[in-house]
Design brief:
Elements: H1 2-28, H2 33-49, H3 55-77, H4 83-126, H5 131-140, H6 146-167
Helix pairs in contact: 1-2, 1-6, 2-3, 2-4, 3-4, 4-6
């Protein structure tokens, strides 16, 4: 039974790290490398201790993370995504694996879209900008996308919690 508590603790720590990444991104537009590394490393004990965990699940998670990192690197090189965002998305991708990757990406996109709409709504309130000045300001507006990535990561963590909570009689 203690292994289930350990499994739940891993997910709680994962969520705490995602929250720390979000706070850092909102405050400084930076996601420290240690957070992404800790999230990626935390998946190892989680995957090895989880109910029904297999070596295939472990390899699948890290394989997805590697693929997401490759795409994230290309997006970073194209100045579409920040480096910290790419690393955090890769680490969250490890936890998502193939089972939850699409869910994570959809939640991330929806959250990011809502953040963009909020930023657009906020711009005219701060300054009365029209036409080209407004568009230039929109293009230069930064979004702390670590928040959107974390929202998707929270979903993956929740999905991983379900088997343990069920076995503990808490579901």
């Amino acid at each position: 039974m203690w292994i289930l508590y350990f499994n739940v603790a891993c997910v709680l720590v994962f969520w705490g790290l995602l929250a720390a990444a979000s706070v850092n991104d909102v405050r400084r537009y930076r996601i420290p490398n240690w957070i992404s590394v800790a999230i990626a490393g935390l998946y190892l004990p989680f995957a090895l201790s989880g109910p029904g965990s297999t070596a295939a699940m472990l390899l699948q998670g890290y394989g997805v993370g590697l693929a997401v990192m490759a795409v994230g690197f290309l997006m970073f090189m194209g100045r579409i995504m920040g480096g910290g965002d790419a690393k955090l998305l890769s680490a969250a991708g490890i936890w998502a694996g193939t089972a939850y990757l699409l869910d994570v990406l959809l939640i991330m996109a929806a959250t990011g879209g809502l953040m963009a709409l909020a930023a657009l709504a906020w711009l005219p309130m701060r300054k009365r900008l029209r036409g080209k000045a407004f568009l230039d300001k929109v293009r230069k507006t930064k979004l702390p996308y670590g928040v959107a990535i974390s929202a998707g990561g929270f979903w993956a963590g929740w999905q991983h919690l379900q088997p343990a909570l069920g076995m503990m009689g808490l579901k």
